[in-house]
Structures are given as structure tokens and as C-alpha cells.
Design goal:
0% strand
Length: 112
């Protein structure tokens, strides 16, 4: 007969984790569960994910800590600054080029 493997989480732990996370589905809750159960953060998130409870937190900053700005938003800024809506193909340009163009357009407007 196969040996039973040890569980990482007891049924009581799972119930407490699910209840706490459903009340406040945030990373702060995950951090409190890490401290409460002395388990790695990744383990807590994995368990909540396997139970279908975990909700990935939306990313609103880049890895560098700057706000996420889509290329379409940069194109919209350029179009608004220039008073046109005929530059949709600019979205195919690189993000760095679009950011530079936004800066140039804004500087040109301030120098007038």
C-alpha cells in the first residue's frame, strides 16, 4: 500500500486562509497569512490559487516603479497636443520613440 504524504496545510488552516482572503483579497492579507502560518508567500498564493480563490493583483506600475502607460495613450496625447486624430499608425512606433515625441511636442507647445 502507498504511504500517505504529509499535508502542508491542515483543513483548519485552509479554511482560515480562504475566509481571511475572501474578506480582504489583497497582498496585505497574504502577508498576514505568511506570518500567521509561517509559510512562504509563494506557497500561500499557490494554495489559494489551487483552491480557485486567489485573485492576481492588477499591475499599475512597471518593474522600474513608473506608472504603466500604454502606447495608445501616448498616441492619444500626441494627437490631442497637435489637434488631430489622423495619427493612429504612430502606435506601431516603439514606446521609447513615442515618449520622446510626446516630450518634444510638449516642449514645442511651451516655447510658443
Amino acid at each position: 500500500m502507498a504511504e500517505a504524504t504529509a499535508k502542508n496545510y491542515t483543513d483548519e488552516m485552509v479554511e482560515a486562509m480562504v475566509a481571511a482572503y475572501e474578506d480582504a483579497p489583497t497582498l496585505a492579507t497574504v502577508e498576514s497569512l505568511v506570518a500567521q502560518f509561517d509559510k512562504p508567500k509563494r506557497s500561500i498564493i499557490s494554495k489559494l490559487s489551487s483552491l480557485g480563490v486567489y485573485q492576481a493583483q492588477p499591475r499599475n506600475t512597471t518593474k522600474q516603479g513608473t506608472p504603466v502607460v500604454r502606447k495608445s495613450e501616448l498616441v492619444a496625447q500626441i494627437q490631442a497636443s497637435l489637434g488631430t486624430n489622423q495619427l493612429d499608425s504612430l502606435a506601431k512606433a516603439s514606446k521609447a520613440d513615442l515618449e520622446a515625441l510626446v516630450e518634444l511636442v510638449q516642449r514645442a507647445q511651451f516655447s510658443n
